[in-house]
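Hi there,

I know you've been waiting on this one. I reran it after we fixed the sequence typo, so this is the corrected version. Both the input and the resulting structure follow.
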Amino acid sequence: MRYKGLTVVLFTVVTVGFIAGLLSYNRKMDEMLGKEIVQATAADFKFSDTKEDPTPPEEEVIPEEPQNQMEETEDVTVPSLLGLSENEAIAKLIELGLTAVREEAYDEETPEGKILSQDPLPQSLVEAGTIVRFTVSLGSEEVGEVAQIIVPNLIGYTKEAAETELRELGFLVEYEYNPSEHYDEGYVYSQNYKVGAEVDLGTTVKIRISTGNE
């Protein structure tokens, strides 16, 4: 019985000591954790004494490179537009880099729709882009009256010479090719209008060209 009582007392003392030590350990751990939390919080909310300048930094200005001076343009020779149609003249001017400006006027000698004058004159040297004004004929100014022209004699002319003659007089030209016993190849042996006939300006004259004696 005496030993049994001593055992109970020793167990009680050990148990109490263990519990007391455990409580002391837990208290020290709580103190350490509390200090770490306070230090971490203070570090997170630490502010810098220097204030940031709200003004954004100035952008770097890169100096522009000087633009190259425009290259000098070569001169263009103004073509002859006389006798051409408006569309033909415009196409020719555009091809050369010139600017076309159309005007119109009555003219008894120039067929309607053909160019009777131009400015600058043919063969003038001008810069590219220069304005070239041309005047398109409206025909005779007399209303209801068509200018009359006389059909020339084209027999014996070469095809090229006959065409030039007709166009200069204000005729339009058509061609027909046939063999001929009396005229060499390339020469006019007949025409559809009689020599000396009076016809309207712009009338089409058909010239018959020899293909030789076959």
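Quick highlight: Helices lie at 2-44, 86-95, 159-169.

Best,
R. S.
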